[in-house]
TrEMBL record:
The chain crosses the membrane at residues 5-22, 42-66, 86-110, 122-140, 152-174, 180-201, 229-250, 270-287, 299-322, 350-371, 378-398, 404-425, 437-458, 470-490. Belongs to the MurJ/MviN family. It comes from the Bacteria. The gene is murJ. Its main location: membrane. It comes from Paenibacillus medicaginis. Keywords: Cell membrane, Cell shape, Cell wall biogenesis/degradation, Membrane, Peptidoglycan synthesis, Transmembrane, Transmembrane helix, Transport. This is Lipid II flippase. It is found in: Cell membrane.
Length: 513
C-alpha cells in the first residue's frame, strides 16, 4: 500500500475517530440515563427499522454513484454534475415517500416484528420521529460520495463530527425533560445541519441541484445503473435484515437483552466503522479509477496492500478488546442506571463480538473491490450465504447461550463470509500467493499473541485504576507489538514508523524555524 494512501488514511482515521468518539459519548449518556432497560430496548428497535431503509438506499447509491461518476469524469467532466443532480433529485423524492409511509406505518412495523416489546408505545413514537431523518441522511451520504469522486475525503468526516456534537448536546441538555426522545430530536437536527453544510461545500466543486436535467445525455449511464441496482439493493437489505434478526431473537430473552447486545455491538462498530470509513473513502474511488483505466497490476497491489494493513491493525485490536472487555464497558457505560449486571452482560457480548473485527473490515474492502470491477453477483451470493449461516447459528446457539449465542454466531459467520469472499477474489485475479499471505498473517498473529501475553502479565501483577491500566497496558502493547513486527521484518510496520518519524522531524523543523 503506497505511502500517499497510508498518509491520507491516517489523517482520515484520526478525523473519523474523533467524530465517532462524540457519537460514542451519546451511547454513554444513554446508558447512564436509562441503563440496559426496556426504554433503551425501545430506542434501539426504533432506530433499527428506519436504518434498514437508509442503509439499503445509501449503500446502493454509494456503490453505484462512485464508479459511474468516475467513468463519466474520464469521458466528459461536464456530465458529472448533470448526472449527480439528476440522481440526487430522484433520491430526495424516494426518501420523502419512504419517510411518510414509515412514520404512518410505525405501529404496524413494531407490532409485526417486535410484538412482545415491553415499551411498545414508546418504540412506535420513536420510530415515527426518526423516519424523517432519512431525508437529510440520504442527502448527506450522496454528497459525501460526490465529494469522494472529487478527491475530497476529510470534509464529509468533519461534518459528521459536527452532527455528532449536536446529538451529544441535545442529550445532555434535554434528556431530563424530553427523555429518550431528546436523542432522536438531536439526531434529526444534527444530520440536517450536516446535509446543509455538505450541500454548500459541494457547490464549490460544481454541484447544482436541478429538478430538470438533460436526460438524453445521461440516459445511457442511467440505464447501466438500473441494471446493477436490484442485486445491490437485495444485498444491502440482506445484510441489514441480518442485524434485525439478531435483535428480534434478543427480544425473546428478557428486558435489557437487546440493549446489552446493542451496546456491545456499538463498541465493536466504533472500531470497525472508523477503519472501514477511512479505507472506503480512499480505496473505492481509486479501485473504480484503476479499473476504468485497466491498470490491473496497480489494482491488485492496492487491494493486497490494504488487506495487509487491515491485518496489521485489526489482529492486535481483537486481542486487546478481549483482554479489556470488562474494563472498556465499565469505563464507557458504568454510570448512573447502568448497573453491574448490565456491565457483565454487555462485556461478555463484546468479548465475542470483537473476534469479528478483522473479518468485517476485510469483507468491506473486498466488497468494494468487486463493486468497482462491476461484479455485484459475487458480493450478493456471499451476503446470502453469510446471512443464512448467521441465522442458523443464532437460532441454534441462542437456546444454549442466550445473548452470547447471538454474538458468537455473528463472529463465526463473519469469519466464514470473509474467507469465502477472499477465495472468490483469489480465483478471479490471483491477487497474492498463499505462501506470502500466510507468512505475513503468521508474523502479525505471533507478534500480537506475544504482545497480549506481556500485557496480560502486566495487568495481573499491577492493580491500578482501570483507565490507567488500559492506558499503560495499551502503551506497553503498542511498543511491544511494533518492536516484534520490526524484529519479524514486517515491511508495512517499518513504513508506518518511518512516516511518524518523518512527521515529527518536520514538526521540530517548523518549531525551530
Amino acid at each position: 500500500m503506497g505511502k500517499h494512501y497510508i498518509r491520507v488514511g491516517i489523517i482520515l482515521l484520526i478525523v473519523v475517530a474523533i467524530g465517532r468518539l462524540f457519537g460514542f459519548v451519546r451511547e454513554t449518556l444513554i446508558a447512564a440515563s436509562f441503563g440496559a432497560s426496556g426504554v433503551t430496548d425501545a430506542f434501539f428497535v426504533a432506530m433499527s427499522i428506519p436504518n434498514i431503509v437508509f442503509a439499503t438506499i445509501s449503500t446502493t447509491v454509494g456503490i453505484i454513484i462512485v464508479p459511474t461518476l468516475t467513468k463519466i469524469s474520464v469521458k466528459d467532466e461536464g456530465l458529472v454534475n448533470a448526472y449527480s443532480s439528476f440522481i440526487c433529485s430522484a433520491l430526495i423524492g424516494i426518501v420523502i415517500f419512504f419517510s411518510i409511509i414509515g412514520a404512518i406505518a410505525s405501529p404496524l412495523l413494531i407490532e409485526s416484528i417486535f410484538h412482545n416489546l415491553e415499551y411498545y408505545q414508546l418504540a412506535v413514537l420513536l420510530t415515527a420521529l426518526y423516519f424523517p431523518s432519512l431525508i437529510p441522511m440520504t442527502i448527506s451520504h450522496f454528497l459525501s460520495s460526490y465529494l469522494q469522486v472529487k478527491k475530497v475525503f476529510v470534509l464529509p468526516t468533519i461534518t459528521q463530527l459536527i452532527s455528532n456534537i449536536l446529538v451529544v448536546l441535545a442529550t445532555i441538555f434535554f434528556a431530563q425533560t424530553l427523555g429518550i426522545q431528546a436523542v432522536v430530536v438531536g439526531t434529526l437536527t444534527g444530520i440536517t445541519l450536516q446535509s446543509i453544510i455538505l450541500y454548500f461545500f459541494s457547490k464549490r466543486y460544481g454541484f447544482k441541484l436541478r429538478i430538470k436535467a438533460e436526460f438524453s445525455k445521461i440516459k445511457s449511464y442511467f440505464k447501466d445503473d438500473l441494471k446493477k441496482i436490484s442485486p445491490i439493493i437485495f444485498t444491502s437489505f440482506v445484510i441489514q435484515a441480518n442485524l434485525m434478526i439478531d435483535r428480534f431473537l434478543a427480544s425473546y430473552l428478557g428486558e435489557g437483552s437487546i440493549s446489552s447486545l446493542s451496546f456491545a455491538f456499538k463498541i465493536n462498530e466504533f472500531v470497525t466503522s472508523i477503519i472501514i470509513t477511512a479505507l472506503g473513502a480512499i480505496l473505492y474511488p481509486n479501485f473504480a479509477e484503476l479499473h476504468q483505466k485497466n491498470e490491473i497490476d496497480k489494482l491488485k497491489t492496492l487491494t493486497f496492500g490494504s488487506i495487509k494493513m487491515i491485518l496489521l491493525i485489526a489482529i492486535p485490536l481483537v486481542l486487546g478488546f478481549m483482554e479489556y472487555s470488562q474494563s472498556i464497558v465499565k469505563v464507557l457505560f458504568g454510570y448512573g442506571e447502568f448497573n453491574t449486571d448490565d456491565i457483565n452482560s454487555t462485556a461478555a457480548c463484546l468479548y465475542y463480538y470483537a473476534v469479528s473485527i478483522p473479518f468485517l473490515i476485510i469483507t468491506s474492502v473486498l466488497s468494494r473491490y468487486f463493486y468497482a470491477v462491476e461484479d455485484v453477483k459475487a458480493v450478493l451470493l456471499n451476503s446470502v450465504y453469510y446471512t443464512l449461516l448467521n441465522i442458523s447459528l443464532s437460532l441454534t446457539l441462542v437456546n444454549y447461550l442466550d445473548a452470547l449465542g447471538i454474538a458468537i454466531a455473528f463472529s463465526l459467520s463473519s469469519c466464514v463470509g470473509c474467507i469465502m469472499l477472499l477465495f472468490k477474489l483469489y480465483k478471479r485475479v490471483r491477487l497474492f500467493s498463499w505462501k506470502d499471505f500466510l507468512i505475513i498473517t503468521g508474523k502479525i498473529s505471533a507478534a500480537a499473541a506475544l504482545m497480549i501475553v506481556i500485557v496480560h502479565s502486566f495487568n495481573n501483577l499491577i492493580k491500578i485504576n482501570q483507565v490507567l491500566e488500559m492506558g499503560i497496558g495499551g502503551l506497553i502493547g503498542v511498543i511491544t507489538y511494533f518492536s516484534l513486527l520490526i524484529l519479524f521484518r514486517v515491511h508495512d510496520a517499518k513504513m508506518i514508523l518511518g512516516m511518524v518519524k518523518l512527521k515529527n522531524k518536520k514538526q521540530k523543523a517548523i518549531i525551530n524555524g
